[in-house]
Amino acid sequence: MVDEKLERSAPGGLSPSETASDPPDFDYPPYITLAHLFHAPKGWEIRNRTMGQFVLQYVVEGRADYPVGGRLYSTVKGDLLFHRPGEPHSILTLEGEPYVCLSFVFHFGKSEFPVHRLFGETHLLGNYAGTEIEKKLNRLVLLYRQPSLSSQLQAQGLLLEVLGETAAGLNRTRDGSAVEARTKAKLLLLQNHIREHYAENVQHSDLEHIAGLSRNYIIVQFKRQFGLTPMQYLTWVRIQKARELALQTNLSVSEIAGQVGYSDVHTFGRMFKKKTGTSLSQFCSSLVTYKV
Q1: Quick check: 235 and 273 in contact, CB under 8 A?
Q2: Are 280 and 242 in contact (CB under 8 A)?
């Protein structure tokens, strides 16, 4: 008869209770509760929603405004957004623009997954149009729809790969810390310039002169930092200011247009309706109705 002590000490002979405990960095795999392709119907939107789980949202076609965590992201094809449980967010489709996305909702059970070590406070994980990550996200949806255990395990594995690879990409971006700090300071300078001069004819050449950076570099880095290109941010600031003026003053629509940098009220009106889905006069009428 084999000695019981020797059997336990032999390779592969240890019982589960005798193995080492979970290492400090051990974390459980994600449990996927939703993975699907969504075609937004005309006029569809979600406002101020919170989720109890983690969410990845990948833009397949079209674009939409995606406010989350106090910041506005104007998402386009290939953008991958991430937000955490309890973070209020909205998805606002744009008039005349399609919006098709892949949505993934998941959690890590009762374990406290250290997601901050992966993404910090980041929401926009990057643009992955035509990349391997896009292929993995599409395959993940297909696997999730299969009932077999092997498919579910593969789907979990793909989600882990996506989370790991996008986090690694963000870390590579952060590596040039000194250069990044200087660039961030210049981008904040540009952001402040736009906020202070939104009523003027702000041009890319002005921003190049202020920052000492090329136009294309400014556009890419500004969107990475703030979720919008400089001109998209200028438009967004103008819309917010127009709403403030509508709320706080008795100015006419044409006067408000002039206050926020538009000499042509019709151009302003088309822009406002395209970005918000309603005209400024309709917005003002709703305020009057509300006050009554």
Answers
A1: no
A2: yes
**CATH 1.10.10.60 residue ranges in the chain?**
177-292
Question: Is the overall model pTM greater than 0.85, yes or no?
Answer: no
Residues 253-265 pLDDT 10s: 999 999 999 988 9
CB 119 within 8 A of CB 125: yes
Architecture of the CATH domain 31-175 = Sandwich (2.60)
Which position has the higher pLDDT, 14 or 197? 197
| 8-state DSSP, 41 | P
Which positions ≥6 away from 120 have C-beta within 8 Å? 170
pLDDT band at 22 (very low <50, low <70, confident <90, very high): low
**Residue-level length of the chain:** 292
Contact 104, 34 (CB under 8 A): yes
Q: Residue 18 above 60 pLDDT?
A: no
3-state secondary structure of 81: strand
* Residues β-bridged to residue 35: 104
Q: Which fold has domain 177-292?
A: Arc Repressor Mutant, subunit A (1.10.10)
